[in-house]
Amino acid sequence: MHFSKKCSVFKVVLSALLIVALLQLIYLSFLSKLHGRQQRYRYSELFGNAGKKNVHQPEKNTRKERLKYSLSTGGIFDASGQYRVYKNLIKSEFSANQKPGVDGSSFQITLATHTTINNLHHLDSLLERWQNPLSVAIFAHGQDVKFATALVYALSMFCPQIQALVDFHMVCHSGEMASFPDQDREQFAGLEDCAGVFAKLETHRDKYKNYAIGGNVSYPNNLLRNVARGGTDTAYILVIDIDMVPSADLPQQFSALLKRREPASDEVFVLPAFEIRHARKLPASKSELVQLYQVGEVRPFYEELCPRCQAPTNFSLWVNLHGPAAGQLEVAYTLNWVDPWEPFYIGPRTVPLYDENFRQYGFNRISQACELHVAGYRFSVLSAAFVVHRGFKVAGDFHRRKDEENRRNRLLFRSFKEGLKAKYPASPRRC
Questions:
Q1: Model confidence, pTM
Q2: Which of 28, 91, 122, 150 has a CA between 20 and 30 Å from the CA of residue 70?
Q3: What distance in Å separates the CA atoms of residue 346 and residue 235, rounded to the nearest whole number?
Q4: Distance (Å, whole) CA 102 – CA 29
């Protein structure tokens, strides 16, 4: 009798456990189907047939139609005929609508940058610091053309700040064409939100260096800089590489400077350039940067590889400046260009373009700084603004063909300087 009661209790407990297990299976099955539906919805939202009207998401359908139209044009060829350029592949809400800034005045400055898909993950922290219009030119080759098209579109769909402020342009070889990624469900069906898209970009992180793509593919850095510059209508532009970050609140401080001081038409505003150890947090203010500078965690950009390339900035003078109140930007001092200075600067959109014959490593930025000098520009160094490169530049970080590329571009630079004499015959300046 006692055994029979134990057996009955055991059966009841076992039955209860089985029921709980069954309910859990039903619940998990429900979650799985729900997740599957969400995934299918997300994919359809991104890459589904835009011809099917969705009255609840007219703006997203509009973005999709804009992308399809941009791709359908086939882009335009660059001056050399070697590259296909898709300008405004994805347009931000700012560019599409020219919305005013939060202070009621229009944005006056855009950050223009360039990259391959392997470095696009830097966009997240760059935009977090910049918080203003940003124009990104991406070079894609081979399979990366399709990958880049899909990922920038997904970024514009799932990331509100990117959607609001970032314009994307793409450059590929003239024999390649970008297409809408509606046939790649298995590759992109997992994209659900902004974090997921950046996680996808991380799979391409450091796949190769921009200048070491392989297959004798040249990285057209100056063409990309011009494409990014040409993608904005703001009065002033800051051109930097995507793995560099400006000081905090720079757009607002620079706009305030313009209100206090009328800039000359032949003036550019130099941002002293530094590099920081990878492990360190990027400084936001000059005081934070100077503290790191004094203990060797921050140093002038290219200090190990080409100290002369940045030395004319006069870092010791800049670091020891005792200027205006915190948060107020001023011109600290003005310099004439000297060889081989290659400063980063904010300039009016009217400054000469970069010479697109320069590709790969060497003389690509210095050639443009040289032309500014010959054209009569002066270089005004800002008191408290700067740019910082992530990581120290060291010799071992460069690809094996760097020296060969540098020699080739040095020869090109000589002919470029000769060309400036004909372009600016009245200028007494040479470089």
A1: 0.85
A2: 122
A3: 10
A4: 47
Chain centroid to CA 369: 21
Are the beta carbons of 286 and 386 closer than 8 angstroms? yes
Beta-carbon contacts of 107 under 8 Å, excluding residues fewer than 6 positions away, are 94, 100, 101, 132, 133, 234, 251
User: Which range is least confidently modeled, 41-45, 106-110, 161-165?
Assistant: 41-45
Q: Please provide residue 374's backbone torsions phi and psi, each rounded to the nearest 5 degrees.
A: -65, -35
Single-letter residue type at 66: R
- Label residue 389 left, alpha or beta by phi (over 0 means left) and psi (-120 to 50 means alpha): beta
Q: How many CB atoms lie within 10 A of CB 307?
A: 12
Q: Rounded to whole angstroms, how far apart are CA atoms 319 and 322?
A: 9
Three-state SS for 326? coil
Instruction: Work out the number of other CB atoms within 10 angstroms of the CB of residue 203.
Output: 10
What are the CA-CA distances from residue 219 to residues 44, 107, 357, 400 (Å)?
34, 31, 11, 15
For 326-345, what is each residue's pLDDT tens digit?
A: 568 999 999 999 999 999 99
Element (H, E) at 305: none
